[in-house]
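so i finally got all the pieces together for this one. its two components total, 1047 residues if u count the protein bits. some of the lines might not be protein, just check the labels. i wanna see the whole assembly predicted at once instead of chain by chain like last time, that was a mess tbh
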Amino acid sequence: MIDFAKPDIEYGLLWPLLLIFAIACLGVVVEAFLPRGRRLLAQLALSLVGCVAALVGVVMVGLDLSDHGAARGSIVAEGALAVDGPTVFVWGLLLVITVCGLLLFAERRLEGGVSAFAGQAAALPGTDAERVASSKGLDHTEVYPLMMFAVAGMMIFAAANDLLTLFVGLEVLSLPLYLLSGLARRRRLLSQEAALKYFLLGAFSSGFVIYGIALVYGYAGVMDFAGINDAIANETGSRTMLLIGMGMISVGLLFKVGAVPFQSWTPDVYQGAPTQVTAFMAAATKIAAFAAMMRLFYVAFGSERWTWEPMLWVIAVLSMVIGAVMAVAQSDIKRMLAYSSITHTGFLITGLVGIHSADGLADGQITATQSVLFYLVTYGFMTVGAFAVVTLVRDAGGEATHLSRWTGLGKESPVVAGVFALFLLGFAGIPLTAGFAGKWAVFASAMSAGAWPVVVIAVLTSAMAAFFYIRVIVLMYFYEPVGDGPSVTLPSFLTATAIGIGALATVVLGVVPGPLLDLAAHAGEFIR
Amino acid sequence: MNDFPWLSLIILLPLVGGLVTATLPATGSALPKQVALGTATLTFVLSLVVAFNYETGSGFQFGELHEWIPAFGTHYAVAVDGIGLTLVLLTTLLVPVVVLASWNDADAADGTSRASGFFGWMLALEGLALVVFMAQDVFLFYVAFEATLIPAYFLVGHYGHVDRAQRAKAAVKFLLYMLAGGLVMLASVVGLYAVSAQAGHPTYLIGELAGLDLDKETGRWLFLGFFIAFAIKAPLFPVHTWLPDTTAAATPGTSVLLICVLDKIGTYGMLRFCLGLFPEASKWATPVVVVLALISIIYGALIAIGQDNMLRLIGLTSLSHFGFIVLGIFVMNSQGMTGATFYMFNHGLATAVLFLVAGYLIRRRGSVLISDHGGVEKVAPVLAGLFLVGGLGTLGLPGLSPFVSEFLVLVGGFAHHWVTGAFAVTGIVLAAIYVLWMYQKLMTGPTVPEVVGMKDLNAREIGAIVPLVVAMLLFGFYPKPMLDIINPAVEGTMSVVGVSDDDPVVTPVDAEHSQEGQQ
C-alpha cells in the first residue's frame, strides 16, 4: 500500500493561475447552459473580469514575493511550478495582452454585427449549412473559454519548474490555439488549412519534446530543473543522452517561438488564422515560450551553457537573416508581419544568449533576463496593435491584406495609416519608439556576453528589415490610391482601445523605458 | 544666467512650434507659415543670446544633466563648446532663411497648400538637429541622430517638384543609406556600453567615456562603426551616391536643411566622437581617411562639372566640400581642425545661397536643366547677382568667409604632407570651373526665349538671402569672432587625441598674416 500524502499547494501564490483555469471551465458551463443569445455578453464579461482580477492577483503576488538573494519568489506545488520574479512579470504581461486580445475577439462592428469567427465551424465551406448559419447570424462564443485555456496553459508554461509540467503547459496552450486558428469567418479553407498545418507540425514538435524529456530523465533521473542542473554539474550518466535530449526539447520550444529552421508554419498560420487570433497568438505564445525557454536553459541546463550557447548563436543568426530576407519578398501584409516576427525571434534569442546572472556583470548592467523580458513587452504590444490595424483595412471580400490594397492609405485614412506607420517604425527599431529600446537592450545583453558577431549580424539584418517596413510606409503615403482603394472600417471602442494601448506603449516605452526596465531588473533571476 | 535651461529651451521651441504648425490649416491661410517663421526666428535670437553669453575658451557651457534611462546608463545631457555652438548658430540661422525662401513651395497650383506639414517637419528637424549638436551623451546623440531621419524622410518624399515615384525612390534610398549607417553605429554604441560596464559602471556620458582605457583592438572596431555611419552621413566617397539623387528630388529648401545642416552631423560626429572617444584608432585610420577625403574633393568636383541638372550639380559640389572638411579634421593639426569647423559653418552659408537662388530660378523657368537657361542676368539681374555671390563663396573667393576656412584647411593639408596639400588645391581650381561654367551657361549669353519676361526676385526672396550674404561678407573680412570661439575647442580635441603642432610648416601667426594680406 502506497502512502498517499496530500500535496501541499500554495494557493496564496497560485490563485491567479487557478482563477484563469476556473474562468475557462466556467466558460464551458456557460456554453452548455445559457441560451445562445445571452452567451456572448456572459462570456465576455466573465473573461474580462477574470483577467482583470487575475491581473490584480498577479500584482499582489508580485509585491509579496520572498527574497532569496539574486532571485525572488519560491518554488511551489511540490516543485512543479516556480513563482518567481520573471514568472510574475510574464504572467502580468500575458494577462494584459489577453485583455487586448479579448477586446479584439469581441469586436462586432467590422463584420457588420457578427464576430470574426465562423458562424458554425462544423458546417463545410460552401454548403447550405454554412449559408444558414451565417444568415442566422450565428457566432462561436466558445472562443472565449478556448482563449482562457490557452492563457492558463501559457501561465503554466512560463512557470513550469519540471519537465512534465513544461509539457503539460505546452499542450494546454497549444490545443486551443490550433482550434482558434481554424475558426475564421472569411476565407475558411485557408483558415482550416492553417489550423491543420499548425496542428500537425505542432503535434510533431510535441513528440520531439516528450522524447527529449524521456532522454533527459534517463540521464538525470529527475524531472525538476534544479535536479537536472545538479546531475549535469556532477556529470552522472551518458552525455550523449543528455545532449540529444536537450536538442529535442529545444526543437519543441524553438518551434513554438517560430525560430528558423522550425519557422515554416508561421507565415501560413499567421495568414490563415483570424487576424484577431493571430494578434493574440503571435504576442502571447512568444512571451510564454520565451519565459519557458529562459527558465529551461538558465536553470536546468545552466551548467551546460557552453553547449547550447553556440546552437542559439546559429539559430539567432538564421532566424534574423532568413526572416528578413523572406519578408522582403512578401506581398501580403499578414505574411510580411509573420516573417518579421521570425526576425524578432532572432533578436530575442540574441538577448537570450547574454549573461543572465548579475554576478558576471557590473553593477546596474543589463542582464539577459531583463533584456528579453523588456523586449517581450515592447514586441507584444506592437504586435497586437499592428495586427489589430490589419483588421480595419477592408474591402468587399473582408480584410484587404494584399499590400497593393494598402496603396494610398495615408490619404484615405491618415489616422489609421499614421498609427500603422508608428508600429512599423517601432518594429524597425527607429529611436524614440519602444522597438529601439528593446533592440538596444537585447544587443547590449548579447554584447556583454561577447556575442559581438551576432550583434553585428543583427544590426545588418535590422537595416534589411527596415527596408520592408519602410516599403509599406512608402506605399501608404507616397502613392495615390489605385481604383477603389481599400476602405477603413471604423471599429467600435473595443478594437480602438486595443490599438490605442499598443500605440501608447510603443511611444511611452520608447521615450521613457526606464521604469519598465527597472521593473524587469527587479524581477531578478530565475529561482532554482 | 547659467542656471536657466537655455539649451533645452532652444531645443523645445522648434519642436513645439513644429507641432503647432502641423496642426494649423494651411489652405487659404498664411498662419502656419507665419508661426513657423516666428518660431524659427525666435530660436535664432535665443541662440544668439547663448552665443553672446558664451565665454570663449572655457570649455563646455550651459550644461544640463538629468538621468534618463538608468538601466542603460544614459542621460539627458546637453552643453555647447565652440564647435557645437558654431553648428547651433548655423542651424538656427538657416532654418528661418529656408522658411522664408520656401514660403510658397508647398502650395499647389490649385490653391491647396500643404505648408503646415512642410514647415512642421522642418521645425521638427531643426529641434532634433540641435539635440545632436548639443548632446553630451552618446545615447542621446544616437537617438536624435536617428530620429532626424523621420522628418527628413517625409520632407524628401512628400514635398518636391519632381514626380511622386522619383521622390519616393529618392526618399527611400536616402533613408536606407542612413539607416544602414546608423545601425552599424548602433553596434558600436552598444559596444561602448559593454566596455564602460566592464570598466566599472555603465555610462554614456562623453566626459566619462573619454577617460576609458580602451584596448587597441576594441577601440578600432568601435571607431569603425562610428566612422562608417558618419562617412555615409557626411557623405564621403564611395558612400555618397544618395546625395545627388536626394538633392535632385527634394525641394531646394529641404536640400539646404539636409546638406547644410544634417550632413554636418557626419563631420561633427567625426570630430567629436571619432577623435574624442577613439584617439588611437583615429590616428591609425588617418592615412585611409585622408585618401578618401582627397578622392571626394577631386571626384566630386569632376562629376559636378559634367552635370546638367542644377540641383545635382550643387549637391555634388558639396561632396567636394565635405572632402575638404574631413581632410581638415583628419590632418590632425590646429589649422586643419579649426578650418574644418569654420568650413562647416561657411559651407552652410554658401551652399544655402546657391540652392535657394537656384530654387527661385527653377520655379520661374520650370526646368532644372542648365541647358534650358541662358542670359538670365539681363532679365533678372538681382537673381543673377545673388547666384554669383553664392557661387563665388563656393569657389572660395577671398573676402567671402569660405575662403578663410578653405585656406586654413589647405594650410593644414600642407602641414600634414605636401602631397596632401597639392591634391587638395586642385579642388579649388575645379571649383572655379564648375561654378563659373554654370554661371556662364545660366546667366550670360543671349537670352533664350523661355527666359524672356522672367520676373526678378521680390522682396521676400531677397530678404531670405541677404542674411546669408551679410554673414559671408562679415566673417570673410573679420573671421576673428568665430575663430575665437572655435580655436579653444579644437585645442581641447587635439589634446585628447594627443597631437600638437610641434612641427609646423606654417605657424598660425603666418596663417593670420597671409589672411590679412589677402584682405
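Chain A has 20 helices and six strands.
Residues 188-220 of chain A form the longest helix (33 residues).
anyway lmk what u think
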